[in-house]
Structure formats: structure tokens, C-alpha cells
Amino acid sequence: MQVYPNRFAQELQSGLKPCYLIFGDEPQQKFDMIQRIRDRAREAGFDERTVLVADKEFSWNQLLDATQAMSLFSDKKLIELELPTGKPGTEGSKVLQEVASGLSSDTLLLVHGPRIGKDVQKGKWFKVLDAIGVHSLCYPLEGKQLHSWIQEQLTHHQLRVSPAGIRLIAEFCEGNLLAAKQEIDKLSLLYPAASIDESQLEAAMVDQSRFNVFQLIDVMLNGEQQRCVKMLYRLESEGIEPNILIWALIREWQTLWTLKQQQQNGETVQWQRHGIWRNRQGFYQAALSRLTLENLSHIREQLQLADFQFKQQTIARPFIKLCHLCMLFLGVPLTHLPLLVGHDA
Questions:
Q1: Is residue 185 part of a domain?
Q2: What burial class does residue 118 get, using C-beta atoms within 10 Å of its C-beta: 0-12 exposed, 13-18 middle, 19+ buried?
Q3: 39 and 107 inside one domain
Q4: Residues 152 and 119 reside in one and the same domain
Q5: pLDDT tens digits, 230-246
Q6: Considering only CA atoms, which of 218, 216, 217, 189 is closest in space to residue 204?
Q7: 160 or 76: which leads in pLDDT
Q8: 8 Å CB contact between 259 and 273
Q9: Residue bearing the bigger pLDDT, 309 or 111
Q10: Three-state SS sequence of the chain
Q11: The domain that contains 319 carries what CATH number?
């Protein structure tokens, strides 16, 4: 059964299900739901908690052992299984189906991971677990949904803010729920259970937007030049490793190159085959409409050079080079502009 994140707390009040499936790439909603499950499980006597991560070193026998072993410390236990890729693989799928059929009333299973597509949701393991439990998918919030979420957080803290003030919070945090929650928590300490006007908000809030690499990629693909530069600046100030960004840019180039060749050959783009779901297809369509194969060939040369420089040399200001690369993806004509990125930059 699917339950939307904004209805999840209400769902838990009706009683615990044997299994919960929490997936998505919006960390604050995801963390909130997982924490609510932990709290509710503790209240219900699930005092033992086992955490498993299905990485390359993981043995699925660990999950079987965890569900079958008797606890020395508690009659009930919560088992948390993280799927880093969102998919358990063939062996994992079989084990999860076996676990679903044998879950006892003293074992609660929580499976979580990143964003998943319809292919995963149609998998047998997902269906059998969902049939005895609940699944919820967390997506970034925008517009009215974002404003509603901010309003819920303010109400929880007994804070009263006008619609204009809610828009101000959303603008400061640019859709980042973690940053928004931090600001609202801070406001609750400064103005406990009070009405807060826009001038007080502006005085109290600091622009502490937090951006991740994937958000940067989407903004870049969508052609938003000013926002892309701002996000790069933020990532630099947060100490993000430049090689992570180079890896992300190379990966996006490979995807764009494949999609562009398919377009040139008159083929129908199979978006899901490339792991591109409907909410991100517009970003790629925007990039493909402004970038030619010649543009992409030039970007490839620049990425190869940058990758070598970052791995073999010490670059004084790597984010200048990263900005240059992003500008090429944005279609800005920089071919003939010199760029110094070495020790004397």
C-alpha cells in the first residue's frame, strides 16, 4: 500500500505494519519517516535494532539470520535494510520474498534506499513486501507542496508566519528541506510559539542553502546559468571533493552523447533504459536541444583533460575549471577563452 510522505505520520497512528519500504532522493522526508518508524517501534516494544547494508560485501544470509535468530535482549526487534542501489539483485529478491512469507509478529522490517523506478516497484520482492506493509516514495518538493511542507513544520513548532513569509523561507532554502527545517528549528528558539513577520524572518535567517551534486546536474542540464554558478560556489564552500563533480559530469556527458546519437539516427529515446524518469526527462531534452554533437565532442576533450589534471596535478582553483566545464554544458561559447587553472591561477 502506498502512503504519501505527508500522510505517513497519520498512517503510523493506525498501528505498525510488518514491513515498510521507504525510497527516494529527498533526504529530509526520508529521514523523518524512518525516524518515525523507529520511534513508533520503540514505543511498541521493539527494543532491539539491527542495521544491514546490502553493499558488495553483503551476504543475504545475514538478513535470513537476523529474521530467524532469537534475541537475547528483547522479544521484538526492528531490522533495517539499506539498498544503496535501490535494487536487491536476483539473490536478494529471492531472500526478500522468503523473508516476507516468514515474518513473525515480533520482527519489523524496514527497507530503504534511493529513488526507484516503476521497474523496481513491479518486482516480485517489492510486491510481496508491499502486500503486507506500506511503501512511500520521497521526491523533492516544489511550489505549493513545498509551501505546505513548510507550513506543517511551522505549525508543529506553534509558529505563525504569513504566506509571504513562507515564500521567503522557501526562497532562502531553494527547495532544500534539510536547510528549511534547520531554519525553522532556529526560528522556534528565537521566537517560541510566536507570530513572526517578514522583517523578523530576514533578520533571523541566513542563506544556508545546501545543494548536492545531483541538484547541480539538473540545474546545469536545464540551462539555468546563474543558479548553476551559485550552486558551484555553495559546493566549494561546503568542501565538496572536485573529483566527485568531475565523475558526475563525465557520467552526464556519456548519457547525453548516447541520447544525441540516438536522436541523430532517428531512434526513439528509451528514457527508462538510461535510468531517466519522467520528472527529469525535461532537463535532458533542454540540454539535447542546445548541444550539438560537435559541442559534445569538445566537452569530451575538456573533461578528459580536466580528469587528468585533477588526478595528476595540484590545481590551485579547481572550481574555476569546474565552472568552465559546466558553462560548456550550458552552451556558453567559451572555446576561445583562455583559462588558467594551475599554480599561478
A1: yes
A2: exposed
A3: yes
A4: no
A5: 889 888 887 788 888 88
A6: 189
A7: 160
A8: no
A9: 111
A10: CECCHHHHHHHHHCCCCCEEEEEECCHHHHHHHHHHHHHHHHHCCCCEEEEEECCCCCCCHHHHHHHHCCCCCCCCEEEEEECCCCCCHHHHHHHHHHHHHHCCCCEEEEEEECCCCHHHHCCHHHHHHHHHCEEEEECCCCHHHHHHHHHHHHHHCCCEECHHHHHHHHHHHCCCHHHHHHHHHHHHHHCCCCEECHHHHHHHCCCCCCCCHHHHHHHHHCCCHHHHHHHHHHHHHCCCCHHHHHHHHHHHHHHHHHHHHHHHCCCCCCHHHHCCCHHHHHHHHHHHHHCCHHHHHHHHHHHHHHHHHHHHCCCCCHHHHHHHHHHHHCCCCCCCCCCCCCCCC
A11: 1.20.272.10
Residues 275 and 250 in one domain: yes
Q: Which of the four pLDDT bands, split at 50, 70 and 90, describes residue 338?
A: very low
Torsion sign across C-alpha atoms 23, 28, 29, 34: positive
Within this chain, do residues 84 and 18 fall inside the same structural domain, yes or no? Answer: yes
* pTM assigned to the model: 0.58
CA 244 to chain centre: 16
Amino acid at 92: G
Domain boundary residue, one of 181, 204, 227? 204
Q: How many domains does the chain have?
A: 3
Asked whether 326 and 243 are in contact (CB, 8 A), the reply is: no
In a domain, 342, yes or no: no
- pLDDT of 143 over the 80 cut: yes
d(CA 63, CA 289): 47
Are residue 247 and residue 308 in the same domain, yes or no? yes
189: CATH:
1.10.8.60
Domain of 258, in residue numbers: 213-329
Q: What is the dihedral of CA 241, 247, 253, 254, to 10 degrees?
A: -170
